[in-house]
Amino acid sequence: MKKCKPLLRNSFVSMLLLFLLSGCWSSKSIEDLNITVGSAIDKSKDGKIRSTLQYVIPQAIGNSSSKSPQQKSYTNVSATGISLEPIGWETTLRREGPISGAHQKAVIIGQDLARDEPIRELTDLYFRVIDLRGSTLIFISKGEAARTLESKEAGVIPARRLVEIAEQELTTRALKPLPLIKIWGKSNSQTSFLLQLIDLKKGEIEFNGAAVIKGRTNKMIGILNKEEIEGINWITGEGKSGAVKAFQKASDKPTYYQIESMKSKIKPHVTGDRISFNVKIESEGKITEYWNPHFKPAFKNKTIKHIENAAEKEVMRLVVNTTKKMQKEFGVDVGGFGNQLRIQYPNVWKNVKDNWDEKFSEIPITYDVSITIKDYGMIGSKKNK
Amino acid sequence: MKWRKLNKSQMKIEESAKKAKQDKQPFQESINEMTGNLTADLNLIRKEIGHNSDVTFREFQMGTTGIRIAIIFIDGFADADVINNHILVDFMSASPKETGHPLKNSSLKEYIKNQALSVSGLNEIRTLKDITSGVMFGSIAILVDGLEDVFLVGGAKVKTRNIDEPPTESLVRGPRVGFIENLKDNTALLRRHGKDQNLSIISSQVGERSKKELVIIYMKDIVDPHLLEEVKQRISKIKIDDVHDSSYIEQLIEDNFLSPFPQVQSTERPDRVMGALMEGRVALLLDGSPFALIVPVTFHMLLQSPEDYYERWMAATLIRILRYFSAFISLFVPSLYIAFISFHPGLIPTKLIFSIAATREGVPFPPLIEALIMEVSIEVLREAGLRLPKPIGQSIGIVGGLVIGEAAVQAGIVSPIMVIVVAVTAISSFTLPQYNVGVALRILRFASMLFASVFGLYGVVLFFLLLCSHLVRLKSFGIPYVSPAVSFRLSDWKDFMIRVPLFLMKRRPKLLHPKDSVRKR
Amino acid sequence: MTSSSLDRITSYQAVMFITNFIFGAGILTLPRTTTEKIKTPDSWIAIIVSGLIITLVAVIILKLCQRYPDETFYQFNQKLLGKWIGSLLSLTVICYYIALSAYEVRTMAETTRLFLLQGTPTWAIMMPFLWIGLYLVQGGVNAIARLLEIIFPISVLFFLLVMFLGIELFEVDNLRPVLGSGVKPVLKGVTSSSLSFAGFEILLFIYMFMKEKNKVTKVPLLGVGIPFIFYTMTVVIVIGSISVDVVLSQTWPVLTFIRSFEITGLLFERFDSLILVIWIMQIFATYVIALFIATLGLNQIFSKSTHAFIYSLIPLIYLVSMIPKNINEVFKMADMISNFSLYLFFIMPLVLFIISKVKERKYEKM
Fold first, then answer.
1. In the complex, which subunits touch B with 3 or more CB pairs below 8 angstroms?
2. Which of the ends of chain C has fewer CB neighbours closer than 10 A, N or C?
3. In what order do the strands lie in the sheet with A255-271?
């Protein structure tokens, strides 16, 4: 069989090749890996960087019989150096097994460090190394970042809890999570942006406000509180759910409007050299709490209008307050105004983009808020006897 | 094209062999022809085959005439009913009318043929060779004193088993008929299937010594003549002393002996054979084997079951897709598992990776060795279960599967997830309707595991490319092995992954180049 | 392999040849290479424009081939240009294909080493890949055509599926404004985006093998049309999701895009390595076709029909592929190859077409 000869030879040679290759250069045992789920970067006392890696202990999570109840499901390892890469190697001197960053989802940067070093450089490793996910979330910690990676509750992995809270997007009082890759884009185009700020309350983490990162320097310059985040979310229209106070007078008792959808449209106007913005905010939702017995029943449209107005006023207060803070206190645009100008007036944008943040602080912005209540739940009237 | 070249050289050999035969024959025949003298003839035959304990010589006289007659047969092989109720009775009670002349030569022969002997099949032969081979095949030779011609009567009466449901290809719905070891019964099964006069059954012999009968079956007006020619040529090439089973034929006519894939389909089901014939394929039946061979075959045909056509089309389609899926599982899942956990843990969901890592904690072997331990032991179990009597075989399965698996996990030799992977793989390979495809995939599974353990996912893809490269080059009797998947032809895809309703299947598969392509109007 | 009746391919398979040959390692960097000169999100317009141009060139190539239905480019260029110039041109083309397949193999090895097998030496990644290609090419044009038919749907469907899984990152704002800085930058980018379609010239070589030669206009149309749609979609989705600024900064923008989302609740969470592995099949296809065309050329120039050429080409390809020392040189090699293809396959077919027209006139006059 003449024709079979090359085939025979080929298969023989390739088999030989295969057996020669028994090196398995790249394979690593999964159980030996140190799977990091999160890391914290702080400024150390001597001005260097201290990085803490959080490793998961799989046996403590898996439901194998060897599990002991007291065992913590994570362990934190930290080391000090001038940047992240040497620190990573440093930790391998202290704990067996290679580091696998493929499941890392959170990076927490201490406030001190974020104010001193550009975010882009601090996270360069995370952009560059392929193992790490592009969907990694970055947080700024109010205090020491390493402490946010600790929890007293058994069975909780703090880094994962952090990510899960961020990803649920339940309330407008937290920011929409910004994946790494988008941060990279904003850093590159020198756009200012916000990062979620976390704080510690009784040893456990809490989402509390946002860190303002200035586009030019790529460093943190200030903090927005929860209420101001609400304002930002209304301006960008990116919130998914949450509640709005819907009463005005102090004598009124709590009434709350729950957001089901929100939309916003930023419209730039350019007349000559003058730039101005008009923001249209629309929202639909329902009444979820209504403590005012002396109010008229919700079966009446007038009552609903009244509550809508109150909610609109509250939203207006939020956005105006936030705008003031953006323009006057920090002088940065973190609401995406510049982006809309870029899209709709590309030529105007070319002239202003180099010092947009400064220009932005003087631009007049007007808001239109309209809120529609579609539903008021199971109770239409309140018995006041 | 390989076979064509070979064929020429083969033909040369054949010619020279023929010549050699012709040189010898005249010399032998002059000696071995019957003389008409019973005693001398009998001695001649005795010398040739008389040493066999089962060859029986029986001499008696013909009725009133006193002419001596001898019958030679193999005890237990020749039809005893014919001997006792026909030959002996007929001859012993024969009383030819007195015509004045004593019965001699031609008149005696005519008398026996026309009046005395009451059997249907009657051959007249002369040479010793014909007599001995006839007797050896189970016929009864009748020698009459004074006649040079010898009558050869009847055929072998072989004990055959009943026609049963084939054990290797059982169906939920469909005829419960399978081939048996007797060729005549098998061809009759096919004839009985339908009254198509185009069903051609051509006989030929294989085995230099054993001379087994092999029939080529096809539909005269459907089959591609090139294909038929090809089959005939390959069969004529077979030069082997004996074929024990049709699998010998399969191995001797296949295209590529280095391929792990079967290139000839074997089946025990007449309905499957008929279905194949209707598509324009050719079937081969060997005497003594219940397995018919069907050529050509494509990989897709091997994953088909007759049930695909007996069930309604939706169910059939789903089952087909399921079968492809389980073929994929049985080929790739262990290697993918190895690749993922030892090369790309980043791709697995975070929660899953923790539980895998936890279960693998304490397992002393790398995943490849772990998988090999499990795979090899499951192959051993399967083989053990196959060879033992059924009830014991089952208990082997239970002991092996449950007890050893559980104990291995408890002992920390393998991880529980690996047990799941191996078990799922093994079970999926059972869903394949043809046993030999399952075997092919089992072989390839080990290769793919090796690739995966060296190169991870890249290795799996390399293996896939290698496999595809091999498959696209492979042909079965000139038909690409991967069709109808590729080359893409919409009309053939009607009966591929999706089995369209019967009323839409109007044409026979084009890939077989049928002469009459219309199936339904 | 002689061109017996067995060695024919259908029109659909011819489309597969063109499409698979256009696809290749290039798509992994496509959004960056097309945007580099344009610097606005409008590179998808450049792709559309260049796609139309390429379709036109492909149709001209088809017309050229139809004059010589039973010959490949290697054979008929000798008729048009004379034996020596023709052979020289053929050898140049063969060198181009060797370089191309070397580049494909090298890119495959680089990305694999980067994403899948850190620590495995490059030669170990390349060797089995080259071997399998060798094994397949020995099967001739039919085997290759069938393999293309198998890997095309798998890789393309997978790619599209993964692309659409990342749709949540997509923001129309990233693609706007359309033509914000006018048409000029787009026109600047047409050349570079045209080069991403290099490979359509395969028609010059496979036309001979086609079964039905009457209704073939759809072959170049479909063959270029599929990558055309696919490229446009890729560029739109990638730029729309990760914005021009990011695309320009990334080495492998498509992989960056796929890396930046994860889907929970499926068997896999991340798809970057997965898509790379699937795309390796496409790279394999390009490599195999280039290898096949090169061996075909050698066989036809020297009028021999042996496998000896394939065996000698494999080490050659390996050596050429090891020339670039780092990833920058690999990209440089890609630039060189595609610039070369501009002269070789955009301009040359036009010249040949004109020559053949002129010759035809001459015959008519005589």
1. A, C
2. C
3. A242-245, A255-271, A274-290, A365-375
